[in-house]
Amino acid sequence: MAMRAGIEQLNGNVKILGGILSFPYFLSSIQYIRDSMLSMMWVFVNPLAENGIDDPMINPLIKKALRLEESGCLKMLVCLAEKDELRNMGIGYAKSLEKCGKLVEAVDIEGEDH
Known about the structure:
The chain is built from 3 helices and 3 strands; from the N terminus they run αβαβαβ. The chain has a 3-stranded parallel beta sheet, with helices on one face. It is α/β, with parallel strands linked by helices. Residues 34-114 form the Alpha/beta hydrolase fold-3 domain. It comes from Capsicum annuum.
């Protein structure tokens, strides 16, 4: 919703100034094997995804995804877990937001998993 809010006008001209991304579930064929459990779960949940785990709904960093600089959020809090298998994608997302000029704070919870 926050991504689309930067592109589409919300009812009442509401503006979303910030958001919280708690333990993001992003996948990418670059980091995950297509036959991994995480990848298979995504295909089960969304069998119509054209490109499997390289679908913009699960991988916001691919070219087909909405452009991060168009996000309606100026600020983003990204919560990560040290032992989370998906942590690196969350870190990549946070860094990409920063490159687009967004204010990002990443909080990494030590010793925790997804």
